[in-house]
Amino acid sequence: MNVLYDFSPNFSKTLRLKRNIKFVIIHYTGMQSEIASSKRLKNPNSKVSCHYLINRQGIVIQMVRDKNIAWHAGKSKWKNFKNLNLNSIGIELVNKGHRFGYQNFSKKQIQSLIKLCKILKKKYLIEPENFIGHSDIAPLRKLDPGEKFPWHKLSKHKIGKWYKANKSKKKYDHIKELIFFKNIKKIGFRYFNVFKRRKKDRIVVKSFQRHYLPRNITGIIDKKTLEISHFLTS
């Protein structure tokens, strides 16, 4: 695929080994324009960057080389990994985001993303379930790529984890919260205590719903939310 280059100075000096690249983290830019996004990703004072930027026309722009550690994930956790910059490639999709007028991702944008992810998957032997969103790894502070991101569509290309529904007759009743948090811990979600409920747990539930149940972002563990968590781990 055709890739343009517009490199950012924002990356760590230490080079990483090819085998350390285990994840692809998908973001939206969350700014008012592509120009503003590009300037911020190249501004040394911002201390943020990404490996690839995909604009609304589907043009892919590499801003940090794969072997370098870009600054896109920030404080984050997933499975047994912390601060995922070291182990991931960050892809930013141009989108105004929730703050400035959240948009549907363009068809060309998603087509280019799928092509790029397939290349990265093959090159670094990345597992399908290790294509995740910024809000998955940092649910208490991030919303991107958001509920309009087509995770289900990507899963058809074996990019990202999705579920297969079945006719489960299990009844969870009063222990549904415990079961749910046990399930999503198996998937990789963090920032909660399986056995102790806290106010911030609702934000984590919303993050899960934003990814797997985007039409029902309530923060409430209802039957459908619980079932999906079960389907993903069974």
Explain how this protein is built.
With 234 residues, the chain is an alpha/beta fold. It contains eight helices and ten strands. It folds into two domains: 3-155, 3-Layer(aba) Sandwich (Lysozyme-like), CATH 3.40.80; 173-233. Helix content is 32%, strand content 14%. The strands form three sheets. The chain has a six-stranded mixed sheet. Helix 6 (176-187) packs across helix 8 (223-233).
* CATH fold group of the largest domain: Lysozyme-like
Number of alpha- plus pi-helical segments = 8
Secondary structure: number of strands: 10
Number of separate domains? 2
Widest sheet, order of strands:
1-5-4-9-3-10
Sheet-strand content, in percent, reads: 5-15%
Which bin fits the share of residues in helices?
A: 25-40%
The secondary structure category is alpha/beta
Could you list the spans in which at least 5 consecutive residues all have pLDDT below 50?
Answer: none
Q: Can you tell me the CATH architecture of the largest domain?
A: 3-Layer(aba) Sandwich
Mean pLDDT across every amino acid position = 96
Q: What global shape is seen?
A: globular
From the alpha-carbon coordinates, what is the Rg to the nearest angstrom?
Answer: 18 Å
Tell me the CATH superfamily of the largest domain.
Answer: Peptidoglycan recognition protein-like
Biggest beta-sheet profile: 6 strands, mixed
Order of helices and strands: EEEHEEEEEEHHEHHHHH
Our measurement of the CA-to-CA distance between the termini, rounded to an integer number of angstroms, reads 36 Å
CATH class membership of the largest domain: Alpha Beta
